[in-house]
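Q: Structure tokens for this one, please.
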Amino acid sequence: MVDIAPAWPEPTPLDPLDAPVPRYGTGSLADLLPTVAAGLGVPGLAASMELAPADRACVFLIDGLGWGLLRAHPEEAPFLTSLLGTSLNGTGRPLTAGFPSTTATSLASVGTGLPPGAHGLPGYTCEDPATGALMNQLRWYPWTDPYVWQPYPTVFQQAAAAGVHTCQVSAPNFEQTPLTKIALSGGSFHGRLSGEERMDLAAAQLAAADRSLVYTYYSEVDGKGHRYGVNSDAWRGQLMYVDRLAERLAEQLPPRSALYVTADHGMIDIPFDPESRIDFDEDWELRAGVRLLGGEGRARHVYAHPGAASDVLAVWREVVGEQMWVASRDEAIAAGWFGPRVDDRVRARIGDVVAAAHADMVIIASEREPRESEMVGMHGSMTPLEQLVPLLEVRT
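A: Here is the predicted structure, written as tokens:
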């Protein structure tokens, strides 16, 4: 009998163990503030990165400004580009965000100094095991008690308790949000509408005490990227604007200060074609056995009906396994996607299946997520364009 080779080889799914896991504990966003606060003498916090201590420290987080995007646009961002060599204590290397590389998860990591498996915000949306509802962790809907959802103190709270002058300077509408309360609170909040006002006030607050920790934030680089894409004039205009803001802040730093400019994730544009945008709501195979679809297009939490998890895992690997790292919950946790530990209260928030995009594609949901499905720029996964972020430094 003669063996006849198939006309085409069977697809080989990507190995979840090959995914580039964030550098938790040595060079991730979660390591930044504990290292900075330890340098300010805050007890109970350890420096896990090499950063020279400073009496006054300011973190300026630019939402969506990934390392690759910044390096690709030197003309639009001459000041920030001039600082690339200062990144990560003068090594010229980036930080990693965390998984998923998305705003709610990253801001929680920044503020608490903890990876997602500990602080418990493992995605844009995830299941609340107490209710079975899909919870949006950016908009905090449906409501759940923020301090039960994320019970750990923030680094800002620990710094303020240690006598460090601590404050946040951001848009006024962020002051009372649950995400701010559980991720960034501590000291005082100062709301200012314009970017220029935020930079000026951040510098003034930095000079207000001998030991200061100031956090300021700008969101519209991310906003324009989602709406128009990172290859758009609108996005480039925002990059030019935020470059001037960073320079404005740097020029006003008081003595003995360190300014750190970083981001929560990068972004890539996804083409509008059926191969690049697979619609969950129109794909019966991907829907089979699925109870809830969480996360976002490039970082999906998939919650199966009871008893169907293994079948869902097999189907997702077969359908998208060449384009996405597809792992079971246990595999993703064991591989360290969410950090070196996952708290018991967090484990069930993670999907039975977790799918992270490797190719330039997304799993949209046109009926369940119409607004998100129309976005041009996307993020969430572990590819370098999404995962790597700058840690630029200016000292006086």
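A few notes: The CA atoms of residues 131 and 291 lie 14 Å apart. DSSP finds 18 helices and 18 strands in the chain.
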